[in-house]
């Protein structure tokens, strides 16, 4: 067999779906593992629904998660004449025929099938008729002459041997009345021309595979190998759709899920290698194989994605984490200013505590990023007259100390606890509220260290 070549072929009719991302990932990893090529084909023949913005979003999303295709994008609409040419060849070779059934006739056939509670299959009325019998006022569709007798077998690289009765595959349309090609014809011609060796896609395409193999055989082409991966379901066990929440990559990037974490999660969603959970990019390529893909649908678990993201936040290099945070803030919040950059960097060790997302880190960082502190009414009530005395006393003590390290600050706070006959919360809580605007947040020593002596004095003077 020639060098491995796979493809991902989305339609630009909406944002890239999380299931599509996993399909792209599996194709990309398989090609990279085998030293082959991975291509991106934009199936944009649905002119009414295809949009340039969605095409750009698909390319951007794949790049964000680390999937880069080889060569230029293959644009399906540029190849329509090739598809039509093959349809006419199939017609000339007797593997296809013109069908002059009216829309009303087809609807009647569907209605009868529904009444009998059986799947609709076109009744092949025009399969063996002569064109001489054709009505003059109806434009025909071109249908492929599917096999009627026997069975067809597929050696699926994930599902194993799959067999179906040929009479369950209808004579499917390959050219519509307006002369435009349908999905199964276009996909077959494109995959042949692109010299695809492996087609890895969702198992909802299984019936399409049997149709496409028949086109390959009719044209005398050798067909690629096929692998059908189980679909992704919601946590309730329903098929995940584009209408579900958290179904696109944008949904995840907006809440601060990091690309490496999401890629790791999607890799493990329906695929396993021994008992290993965490894979960096090189390991993903090294260990990926089709044998590790399960046969049952996987459930998308957002809490597991959060857990994976938390692992990455805790364990990646903090310079890398800062860069990810900076990109996240630039795209979704406000860019981190140069004068705040160093303070955020040096504070990441505690800002990332208990953070599951970049958004959590951003929220933990707000007291640094914000110059003007606004205290909500509920927290204001906690800063009573006694608290103000404590704050003023703390302010006087830090003004007169040169040492603003934790040890010296602990001594000052312990002295205040004794002086005011209170506990640590009695000192720490009003200080935290006045310095950050909230009773919740990082530890008081971390806050003091992050802000620095001058900023602490400035903020406490405003009380």
Helices and strands in order:
Blueprint: E1 5-8, H1 18-33, E2 37-42, H2 52-64, E3 74-75, H3 80-92, E4 96-99, H4 103-115, E5 141-144, E6 151-156, E7 160-165, E8 173-175, H5 183-193, E9 198-202, H6 206-219, E10 225-229, E11 232-233, H7 249-254, H8 259-268, H9 281-287, E12 298-299, H10 302-315, H11 318-332, H12 338-351, H13 358-369, H14 377-380, H15 385-399, H16 406-419, H17 424-436, H18 444-461
Parallel strand pairs: 1-2, 2-3, 9-10, 11-12
Antiparallel strand pairs: 4-5, 5-8, 6-7
Describe this structure in words.
This protein has 463 residues and is mostly helical. It has helices at 18-33, 52-64, 80-92, 103-115, 183-193, 206-219, 249-254, 259-268, 281-287, 302-315, 318-332, 338-351, 358-369, 377-380, 385-399, 406-419, 424-436, 444-461; strands at 5-8, 37-42, 74-75, 96-99, 141-144, 151-156, 160-165, 173-175, 198-202, 225-229, 232-233, 298-299. The relative contact order is 0.09. The mean pLDDT is 93.
User: How many extended strands?
Assistant: 12
How large is the count of helical segments? 18
Mean model confidence by pLDDT? 93
Order of helices and strands: EHEHEHEHEEEEHEHEEHHHEHHHHHHHHH
Instruction: Report the principal-axis shape.
Output: elongated
Kindly, what is the distance between the CA atoms of the first and last residues, rounded to a whole number of angstroms?
76 Å
Estimated helix fraction: 40-55%
Which stretches are poorly predicted, pLDDT < 50 over at least 5 residues?
Answer: none
- Proportion in β-strands: 5-15%
**Rg from alpha-carbon coordinates:** 31 Å
The biggest beta sheet reads: 3 strands, parallel
Give me the secondary-structure category. Answer: mainly alpha
Strand order of the largest sheet: 1-2-3
